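Re: beginner question about structure tokens

> Can someone show what the tokenized structure looks like for a real chain? I only ever see the sequence side.

Sure, here's an example I had lying around. Input first:
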Amino acid sequence: MALDERTGRTEGTQRQTALVCGASSGIGRVTAVALAQDGWNLVLVARAPESLHDTARECSVAGAETLVALADVGDRARVDAAFQAGISRFGRLTAVINSVAAVAYGRFQDIPAEIFDRAITTNLLGTANVARAALRHFADHGGGRLVITGSLLGKIAVPFMSPYVTGKWGVHGLARILQIEARQTPGVEVTLISPGSINTPAYSQAANYAGRQGRPPPPVDPPEKVARAILDALKSPQRDRSVGIANHIVVFGFRALPAVFDALVTPLMKLAGLSRSSIEATSGTVLDPQPRGDAAHGVWNRFGRRTGVPWTPAPEAAPDPIGDGALAATGLANDTVEAANAFDATPGPPTTATPTWTPPRTPTPTATPTPTPTPTPGASS
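And the corresponding structure tokens:
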């Protein structure tokens, strides 16, 4: 058989399928494209149809068959439906990657409770929802590989990022439990990826109640480095893959010299983790997707300096826990994801234009909510 020059695989070889959560931006988007280039078919999952369609087009150019499924990982029913859509299309999912993250800046007491809770739901409960669906599928199909994107901030503590740090600590604990339990399930492998500072849009898309824009402290790595670690984990699983040259040093300082670490971390965070640019209070992408800000890369160089103007969400008067945005974020304003909400982006012949599709209809809420009063005012994915 001849060799396919695009994928490096022998023609006629069946492609494996991976489901990628968080494929609309940052690490998830870059990983999806890398998987497509490596010969995988893909189920792409995120909240924003526009951005997912962009990712699907990039993957299709690399030769992958793709399926777009709209889902908020914090909604268990939507996650299960997205998995079912992928299984119905491809039959078996060999790998599942979760890289979804919600980031919020500000002192703990200044971050609205709704934002804190929603970030925890996305980062921790969302990971649990994806892992549960993946492990059930693997158990029924003879195994598979689950890759969970954690963070350096799941191993240390920093100020002004309490929702993200708390959620990632939970993610690391969950990943270790799943690894231990997977020893009793033949063929199932679970790998935790722990990135440090990565050049993604997550910092500019974050909810922010700190008054200053967030940024990645140096040294900053490109998301392609994390994608390579994820692909390596699919080929050779291991307990934890750290991405970032300074990660081990920082973790050592946190564990071995806690008093010194605590004294230095706040001034260092103000210096390297928050920019000098001011920003009004905003819920960012925590409650609702912001597809205009989705991209594979951010605007930061290796030293944490801006190389362009980051997109930032519009300021909001106050997060509304019972309004349209919160209902959509929790899945209450839309029907559960069904096959009609999964869009086949399989490429046609080379001369065929990129397939287009219409995003699912969003029903009008049945009641007009009453806004709540305005509260007093490092992410890697």
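Each token stands for a local structural state, so reading them left to right follows the chain. Residues 113-140 form the longest helix (28 residues).
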